Input
Amino acid sequence: MFDFIFRRGNPTNDWHQSPDFTLTAELDAPSLNGIRLGARFDQLSFLGRNDASQLGTLYYFRLGIGIDHAAHETFDGYSVVLDEHDHPFCPYHGTLLWKHRRLNVHQLTRDNLPEIFGEWYWMDTDADESIAFYEYPEYEMQIEIALSGTVTRFLLTKYPLMSDPAQRDSYNVNKPWPPKFGS
Output
């Protein structure tokens, strides 16, 4: 009964995950199992029914991912959780690719991000974590980093946070926008 009430209108209610399910997140495409950002949302039905949702994000705790679902029925972003101590996520165990190369998630650190992804557009650091912002013509990649230097989460979105002047002001960004792509 409560399931019916609380999940009413959830687009994943009829989605089913196959028993031999595997997950591949491509950070440079960006896509999940070949489904690129901007695709119709229902193309993600292979994920199965989500565990929870909040503010347009569907959470798959066991898979270690979150999916941004826009009101216009498109796949607008996703997050990959590598290490999350304070939340109900399991660490992501799928394949993580960058330019067709498999990344070892256990070896990703703040220090080696530039050699893998190039120089970030902006790095924000506060008392809890750092966030490296990488800007591309079609999307933004945010990489959350623990104070220890280990990468804890990737967020990819079609709607760059840094494109908003108010957000750049709040992060004290002193670089021009838009960044030069391909340099």
